[in-house]
Amino acid sequence: MSYNNFLYLINDALKNNHIELALESLKTFRAADLADIIAQLPIETRQTLVLNLPDRSYVFSYLSPEIQVELAKVLPRQVLADIIGEMSSDKRADVFKRLDEHQQNALLPALAQAEREDIRLLSSYMEGTAGAIMSSEYATLLPNMSVADAIKMLRSEAPDTETIYFAYVLDEARKLLGVISLKQLILAQEDQNINELMVTNVLFAKVDADQDDVAKTIARYDLLALPIVDEQGIMVGIVTHDDAMDVAREEATEDFLKVGAVNATSKLSLKSTPILHLYKNRVFWLVFLVFGSLLSGIGIAHFEDIIAQNIVLVFFLPLLVGSGGNAGSQSSTLMVRALATGDVQFKDWFSLLGRESLVALCLGITMAVAVSFLGFYRGDEYVALVLAISMIGIVLLGCLIGMSLPFILNKFGFDPASASAPLVTSICDATGVLVYLSIASVILF
Amino acid sequence: MSYNNFLYLINDALKNNHIELALESLKTFRAADLADIIAQLPIETRQTLVLNLPDRSYVFSYLSPEIQVELAKVLPRQVLADIIGEMSSDKRADVFKRLDEHQQNALLPALAQAEREDIRLLSSYMEGTAGAIMSSEYATLLPNMSVADAIKMLRSEAPDTETIYFAYVLDEARKLLGVISLKQLILAQEDQNINELMVTNVLFAKVDADQDDVAKTIARYDLLALPIVDEQGIMVGIVTHDDAMDVAREEATEDFLKVGAVNATSKLSLKSTPILHLYKNRVFWLVFLVFGSLLSGIGIAHFEDIIAQNIVLVFFLPLLVGSGGNAGSQSSTLMVRALATGDVQFKDWFSLLGRESLVALCLGITMAVAVSFLGFYRGDEYVALVLAISMIGIVLLGCLIGMSLPFILNKFGFDPASASAPLVTSICDATGVLVYLSIASVILF
Predict the structure, then answer these.
(1) Are B45 and B14 in contact (CB under 8 A)?
(2) What is the CA angle B53-B56-B60, rounded to 5?
(3) What CA–CA distance (Å, rounded) separates A387 from A390?
(4) Is A130 within 8 Å of A208 (Cβ atoms)?
(5) How far is the CA of A436 from the CAs of A385, A442, B90, B344, in angstroms?
(6) What stretches of B16-111 show up as alpha helix (H) in DSSP?
(7) What is the CA A223 to chain-centroid distance, rounded?
(8) Going from the N-terminus, what domains does chain A have, and what CATH number goes with each?
(9) What is the dihedral of CA A13, A16, A20, A23, to 10 degrees?
(10) Closest-CA residue to A80 (of A62, A96, A100, A97)
(11) In angstroms, what separates the C-alpha of B269 from chain A's closest C-alpha?
């Protein structure tokens, strides 16, 4: 049976109120898959299914933000409160932040006191910080417990924690003293003390740390979770490895789109984002880049006489100018990614320029040889000479511009990833026009 | 004390054989940080430090491939065998694969029989598959064990497994029957049977599955590890969440570089990759793209007369042609990333074309309004009309080309990410030249 037929049957069963039948056929599906199925049902049966699913709050946390908000409008208030109440604290705060003020105010009284407090706290942190992605459900232990008592405590805490594989040892003021893994506890003697076993040299992040840095720390040290502390060193949450993976993917997507000159967050979906929103994400750069192209136009206008007398030069214009832009995009792409992955730092810029110049020179000479044959074929030996010299200069300049732009943008407080391929291309184009036509005017006239 | 001064002191202590002192000052550092320090020491003291570090095989696995190979040449053979023997099985196979045949043959006899077998097996899998990144150290249990016996068994297996938080239940033929978490075991009654507790609906991947798909599965279902089975359903390894995160980052880097028209693996480092290697990664696309630019040149040559009679057209050439290229790069970037993250599938292409045409039309009209003022200012109302019509056509075509190229490349068996910004730009440039000059020749003559 194809997936579409299956969806059709599920939809039919739900429409005719054969709930048991639908649930039975969905029994072996996982939360992420159920969320996909829900996304493809019409709104009426979507609602019926969510109302009846056994693991509904877990499945709900896998739904896309748009569908969560849409369901929040149609589900009975107490059902919504139950679903949100059972979600993990970080997901719960995310859903809450997406509701409009009216919905939020309607929902709050239906939630338990502790959940209300938790939402208020977690939604108070700025987007993009550790606080905004952390969970407040983690296992804690006291320093003077025995291993046997610690395991007993973890057992009782398990339903309310994201993981029991790591427990954080706190003093009475909830200051972070150490961390201990369930593996250590299982391997230790039952009467040993947590004090002697815990690791005291704990990695942590501040609650206002950049979420990207938190994700990088988790990846670098292969952690399952990173504890988050406030200004006073008091533990306030954990960021888990799966959240770190989501952050890393979001950051990669945003950088990727920036390089293509699209202003966007990773939430943008080609399928479901409204047309006008897609338009807004793209129009700024397109209009901005017109000014870059105008520079090329002005350069060409300046040399109009030379072009008019030697119209063969126009034939090679796209080739030369394009090669500079292409080499420049390569350089900026390499640099932006190397900065993002930590392969290079800003302080390496100067030493990298030397390496890049060598690479650019090799590339330029290769291209010059190729293009001078073409020049000789369509023009004469002078045209060939103009092309060869121009090509080396243009590729060299293109590479140096492409490599430097991310650094310059950063100096002025912009994201280095804004050095998009189209931006580098238009700057290199204008430079290329000037170099080419200047060299031509010197050699040919 | 600055980091550089600290490195200087460590180097000095090692040079003067004050090993204890150096180790004492490095005591609080983590493996990933120690690997960074080692990378910055000269080769002699690098070797001394690795020889004396207490956790040397763990630190060794964090070193870059180049430094691992370099150290493998200078370390005494038995020390190298000890280090490699103690490494986790996947890291061990990775290092082994990087050694040359002579080094491999020298090393094998110094390793234990089990390690030799393990290396032979793990290095036999193709790069890019689950087999090439999996570890063969995982905890296993039998189906008819009690919970108490299972915990005892995990305790004894712990030193030889990557994780004890998940254990795989196998039958006598090592076929995968189910999976159970340490959390489940801790929460269960001691006399319960594994049979009743284990999850039998286990997610797994085949050993020849694409590593990118394995990483996506781990991210989608928020797993700590994914079991890997062979053709017969026999369990052969696990891929852990941290390996999945590394794969996701590598794939993102490769796609990112492809969009910038650089043929590269994620292993490329701007700082340490040899110049000639960087050259080779870039020259193919640069030369290839010359042909794209030649098409533009041929287009221009075809309209040489019109240009010569109306030299003002050249002024607007970069602007019009550039805008098509920029809009096209935006479309292809959005599409490549949406395909990579799973936001869209190839089957969505046709329905996406409609949305994209609408966005492109809005963008084109905006740009047309802007550019027609310029045309009127520098030329007359006819030039303004040529520019407005051309701009709408060029942006529309650019977007449709940018959106379709990833799909077309995929149809012909190429990676859709090869639809790089420079490739899209050169195709759009050539199209733009034709559209612009054709419209001009109709309206102006």
Answers:
(1) yes
(2) 130
(3) 5
(4) yes
(5) 11, 10, 53, 43
(6) 19-25, 31-40, 43-52, 56-60, 65-74, 77-86, 89-98, 101-107
(7) 20
(8) 3-127 (1.25.60.10), 139-249 (3.10.580.10), 275-444 (1.10.357.20)
(9) 40
(10) A96
(11) 6
Residues 41-100 of B with CB under 8 A from A: none
Q: Are A391 and A371 in contact (CB under 8 A)?
A: yes
Residues B123-167: pLDDT tens digits?
889 888 999 999 989 999 999 999 999 999 999 988 888 889 999
Q: What would the mean pLDDT of A61-71 be, rounded to a whole number? A: 89
Counting Cα atoms < 13 Å in the Cβ hemisphere of A262 gives 30
Per residue in A112-126, pLDDT (tens digit) is 888 888 888 888 898
Neighbours of B339 (CB within 10 A): 23
Instruction: For residue A315, give both structure tokens.
Output: 């034939």
Q: What is the pLDDT of residue B265?
A: 66
Among the listed residues B324, B266, B293, the one whose alpha carbon sits nearest the alpha carbon of residue A326 = B293
d(CA B262, CA A443): 34
pLDDT at B266: 60
DSSP label at A233? S
Mean pLDDT of B178-183: 94
Q: How confident is the model at residue A266 (pLDDT cuts 50, 70, 90)?
A: low
Cα separation, A260 vs B355, in Å, equals 19
Residue A324: closest C-alpha in chain B? B286
Identity of the residue numbered B420? S
Backbone angles phi, psi at A236, to 5 degrees: -125, -10
Position B248 scores a pLDDT of 87
Closest-CA residue of A relative to B308 is: A308
Cα A31 from Cα A56, distance rounded (Å) = 9
Q: Which of residues 314-373 of B touch A (CB under 8 A)?
A: 314-319, 321-323, 325-327, 329-330, 332-338, 341, 343-344, 348, 352, 355, 358-359, 362-363, 366-367, 370-371
Interface of A with B in 126-165 (CB under 8 A): 151, 154-155, 158, 164-165
